[in-house]
Write a structure and sequence with these properties.
Blueprint lengths: L5 E4 L4 H12 L5 E2 L11 H11 L3 E4 L7 H6 L1 H21 L4 E5 L28 H21 L3 E6 L1 E3 L12 H15 L3 E5 L5 E2 L1 E3 H14 L6 E3 L5 E2 H12 L4 E5 L14 H7 L7 H16 L2
Parallel strand pairs: 1-2, 1-3, 3-4, 4-5, 5-10, 6-9, 7-12
Antiparallel strand pairs: 8-11
Length: 310
């Protein structure tokens, strides 16, 4: 891919910026980021102008509106519309403008609420997603259908990747929209600094999640872009889960918070469990996650405490 013109949407965001870094580290010299100030990817005209101006050979569509349970409950319509319309327009104009390959980043939220553990790609259509993130998950799932339809009718090379919950340096620590790990880090860091005697958290703590360090995720995306051309979606993760209660204790201990932790059982847990079967990624493009949760959290906290989140 070294001589290809590669557009990464969302390239200034958390995940996108790490994909950019990975591409540059592998010697890709024509990597472009469509700036939101110039191109609103929710507008057909802007997407059309962007495609004709940047003339990409490859598009990695990482731009997304996403967040934790709080954002999913507060803005379900925006989460559906923004993600749906961006992917719809991007894929259509990429096809019409001669793009060779389109990489659509999906989400673990596409899976049914009660999918059997570990989640296998063949189980994707076995039920309705967890209700709090269904609008987001279904928008992304519809883009899987779009990509497969475009492959069938137009021979357009679209691949669809299903990353699990990501975390790492550069994450979103805004309490109104952050995911689990950055939300917990900020809560415990603030409580430790202020000397608070207790921290209140959503849910029962019994739900499980799988977490993938963002640099590993970027490696997976770049490897798939280079090596995978299949129609079927591919899970991107570690293959191991942890209960939220155990994750909470781990983060609190690392920060040095010793106060009381209270779970508000009247607040939703979200999906009961999340854990991916990651064999296809290993078989198809040789990806295996390298960074343990312990090490990844240490790296994230080091970045956080050195002013990275400000």
């Amino acid at each position: 891919m070294m001589n290809k013109r590669i557009v990464v949407t969302g390239g200034t965001g958390f995940f996108g910026s790490h994909i950019i870094d990975r591409l540059l580290a592998q010697g890709c010299s024509h990597v472009m980021i469509p700036q939101h100030s110039m191109y609103d990817l929710r507008k057909h005209g802007d997407v059309l102008v962007m495609m004709r101006t940047l003339c990409p050979n490859i598009v990695i569509h990482a731009a997304a509106l996403c967040g934790g349970i709080g954002l999913n409950k507060a803005k379900p319509a925006e989460l559906f519309y923004d993600n749906m319309i961006m992917g719809l327009l991007m894929m259509e104009e990429a096809r019409k403008n001669g793009v060779e390959k389109f990489v659509q980043l999906g989400t673990v939220c596409e899976y049914p609420k009660f999918a059997k553990i570990p989640f296998q790609e063949d189980d994707l259509w076995g039920g309705y997603p967890e209700e709090t993130n269904a609008p987001y998950g279904i928008a992304k799932k519809a883009l899987l259908v779009q990509g497969q339809a475009y492959r069938q009718q137009y021979g357009f090379n679209v691949i669809h990747l299903l990353p699990v919950n990501l975390y790492g340096p550069g994450d979103n620590f805004n309490p109104d929209s952050s995911h689990v790990i950055p939300a917990l880090i900020k809560k415990f860091a603030d409580a430790h600094q202020s000397g608070a005697s207790e921290v209140n958290l959503w849910g029962t703590g019994k739900a499980s999640r799988e977490f993938l360090y963002v640099e590993d995720a970027a490696e997976a995306v770049v490897s798939a872009t280079e090596l995978y051309d299949g129609a079927e979606p591919i899970n991107i993760g570690t293959g191991s889960e942890i209960a939220i209660s155990a994750l909470t204790t781990m983060i609190a201990d690392k920060i040095g918070y010793t106060g009381k932790i209270i779970f508000d059982v009247n607040k939703p847990d979200g999906q009961p469990r999340r854990c991916l079967d990651v064999q296809k990624a290993k078989q198809e493009f040789g990806f295996t996650a390298k960074t343990s949760l312990e090490i990844g959290l240490d790296k994230t906290l080091n970045w956080y405490y050195n002013g990275g989140h400000k």
